[in-house]
Amino acid sequence: GDQLIPFPACPNSGSPPSSVLHLCVPFPACPSSGCPPFLTPKIALPSLQRSSASGAEDEMGSMDLDGSNPAAAAAPLVPGVGSSAPPVDKGVDFANYFCTYGFLYHQKEMLSDRLRMDAYYNAIFENADEHFRGKIVLDVGTGSGILAIWCAQAGAKKVYAVEATKMSDHARELVEANHVEDIVEVIYGSMEDVILPEKVDVIISEWMGYFLLRESMFDSVICARDRWLKPNGIMYPSHARMWVAPIRSGLGEQKKNALDSAMSDWYSFVDETEAHYGVDMSVLTKSFCQEHEKYYLQTSLWNNVHPNQIIGSRVVIKDIDCLTATVEEIRNVTAQFSLSIEIDRTQLCGFAGWFDVHFRGNVQNPATNEVELTTAPSVDDCTHWGQQVLSTAWCLWLV
């Protein structure tokens, strides 16, 4: 009795539409690099039910989020690292995504995100006495080095700032310019390969990607935690959550129109190639269509969703404890959830996904002032992460 929302069949392909909506979220590729790896959410919607006056009837859904790098499956564990070490090909990661971190324009975008900056600044300085003063700190993926500098200013005894790109040169410049070079040691290299001289009390990192897991960086944080964090050590942030909510949006229609335009252009190309050069290209139509369906209909889109676009309840699909999470746990995130449609006579056009993180310390040493960083839809407080829109193949009218 389940009613799944399919993709439309490829024109003249001879293949039926898929029974499940597959949505692929691509990593942005570095210029001139090859094809990027993919994060592959899958959404299946059983029969839709309108919420009654009492809210007893819910709309049900399920979601799989494959957060792994496709190149990771055959990659060996890093020698000398425990079983939680990330089986991820970091060369592929660097070529396709992390190379962008080596440019100041990308760092400036993140440093200009006031919500991001304020959350980390407040988390560090409002908990300086308990968590940073006199402590050994590891900053994983230090980037510009600003978190490491703040940790030093908050009283850290020593800060190891590890950066896998040549942004480490700029980080070293900033550390010296801010007179904390006696405390902060910038280390150029992959976290998986770096050998520290001692264990650390705190690991801090801004590892979050779009929809939390769209970057293959949390695996490096887990590796650092398992190798270098002392017993009863603290993770900054300590917890993370992934959220979804049903939305109305015109983005899906825009993507379908773009697909129609691409196919129209292809048919013209086929006709012109045969007319001018005597070669029939139509045998490739099915493959071209499938390729573009994947790009336009099975790929999520970054967007700043307005709160008014949300038509139902918001649900948490994943809770992560950064002190105990494993690579296996984040590689394949699966969730079943129920939610209520709270607006009459509206359209369901897909889902928006976002995340929040919390700085709580740990059970033995909780934060004096807990800080939250959220990327939820907002009228005024938007972040550079925005939200990921997972559009259905077409909008469903709910009456």
From TrEMBL:
<dbReference type="GO" id="GO:0042054">
    <property type="term" value="F:histone methyltransferase activity"/>
</dbReference>
<dbReference type="Pfam" id="PF22528">
    <property type="entry name" value="PRMT_C"/>
</dbReference>
<protein>
    <recommendedName>
        <fullName>Protein arginine N-methyltransferase domain-containing protein</fullName>
    </recommendedName>
</protein>
<dbReference type="InterPro" id="IPR055135">
    <property type="entry name" value="PRMT_dom"/>
</dbReference>
<dbReference type="GO" id="GO:0005634">
    <property type="term" value="C:nucleus"/>
</dbReference>
<dbReference type="GO" id="GO:0016274">
    <property type="term" value="F:protein-arginine N-methyltransferase activity"/>
</dbReference>
<dbReference type="GO" id="GO:0032259">
    <property type="term" value="P:methylation"/>
</dbReference>
<dbReference type="InterPro" id="IPR025799">
    <property type="entry name" value="Arg_MeTrfase"/>
</dbReference>
<keyword id="KW-0489">Methyltransferase</keyword>
<dbReference type="Pfam" id="PF06325">
    <property type="entry name" value="PrmA"/>
</dbReference>
<keyword id="KW-0808">Transferase</keyword>
<feature type="domain" description="Protein arginine N-methyltransferase">
    <location>
        <begin position="260"/>
        <end position="390"/>
    </location>
</feature>
<dbReference type="InterPro" id="IPR029063">
    <property type="entry name" value="SAM-dependent_MTases_sf"/>
</dbReference>
<keyword id="KW-0949">S-adenosyl-L-methionine</keyword>
